[in-house]
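Example 9 (inverse folding). The structure is encoded as follows.
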């Protein structure tokens, strides 16, 4: 089965990366930059610290990274970045509270993907001194890519290379995992990964396995795992067993990007995941686009 032409059309236009520019955020920056290149998108980098004046040079060196990755010649000019199809914007926080800076930005700017580093040991973002526990009334429902502190992830900070061959997709009857399946296919295709395995995990009875559409992806196979037990333990255990490079899962999305940090399976997965996690809020614009795209072409999964 041939791939749908829609996979060639980027659906991400605006990517947002808040950071304090510490080493813990370097891997997240690399993933944000690679995502912008993949989608030919705008990338906004927000310096969340406002307790001191930030020099422009303190922001991650986009051109230096692109030169190191072999995508720009040495001593390139700022205008050369736009030739790669991306636009970079660097913004200084305007609020002393990092969360307020982030939510204020998101309330005023359309954002399709947020890329964040997560400190699993503290249960919070590296630039926060305490766990994110207070609900934030944010209804924008942005898709978020979380990169655990200390994890290299699937994008090399050194040379920009991508190592994405095993993607784990936990699914349940609610919310629908359809968007997560299609997001995984899109990433494999747009990142030009020639071979790999999509592992669909259902924790529960075999008869409760949701009915989903599986898009064909040449060089990639679909595996299905059905198991019993604690959902989070099953997800993280399977991720370790298959050496997952990425977990993609749909979340309820009640409170935007902070939803995955509070009171849900995804919150608990974030505390234990050995690899990056892409959280896709159900009911959001991106989820709707992915669901419609996946239903246009479907194939039967392999067990």
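The amino acid assigned to each position is listed next.
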């Amino acid at each position: 089965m041939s791939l749908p032409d829609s996979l060639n059309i980027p659906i991400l236009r605006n990517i947002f990366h808040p950071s304090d520019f510490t080493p813990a955020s370097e891997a997240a920056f690399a993933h944000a930059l690679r995502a912008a290149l993949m989608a030919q998108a705008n990338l906004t980098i927000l310096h969340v610290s406002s307790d001191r004046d930030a020099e422009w040079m303190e922001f991650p060196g986009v051109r230096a990274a692109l030169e190191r990755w072999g995508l720009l010649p040495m001593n390139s000019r700022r205008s050369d970045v736009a030739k790669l199809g991306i636009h970079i914007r660097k913004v200084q926080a305007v609020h002393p509270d990092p969360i307020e800076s982030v939510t204020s930005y998101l309330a005023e700017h359309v954002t399709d993907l947020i890329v964040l580093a997560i400190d699993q040991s503290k249960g919070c973002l590296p630039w926060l001194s305490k766990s994110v526990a207070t609900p934030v009334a944010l209804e924008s429902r942005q898709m978020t890519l979380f990169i655990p502190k200390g994890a290299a992830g699937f994008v090399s900070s050194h040379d920009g290379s991508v190592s994405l061959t095993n993607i784990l997709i936990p699914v349940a009857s609610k919310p629908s995992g359809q968007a997560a399946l299609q997001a995984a296919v899109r990433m494999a295709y747009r990142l030009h990964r020639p071979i790999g395995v999509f592992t669909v995990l259902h924790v529960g009875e075999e008869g409760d396995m949701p009915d989903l559409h599986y898009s064909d992806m040449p060089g990639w196979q679909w595996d299905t795992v059905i198991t019993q037990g604690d959902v989070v333990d099953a997800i993280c255990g399977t991720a370790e067993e298959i050496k997952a490079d990425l977990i993609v899962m749909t979340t309820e999305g009640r409170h935007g990007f902070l939803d995955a940090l509070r009171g849900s399976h995804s919150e608990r997965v974030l505390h234990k995941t050995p690899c990056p996690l892409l959280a896709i809020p159900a009911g959001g614009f991106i989820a709707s686009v992915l669901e419609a795209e996946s239903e246009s072409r479907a194939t039967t999964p392999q067990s």
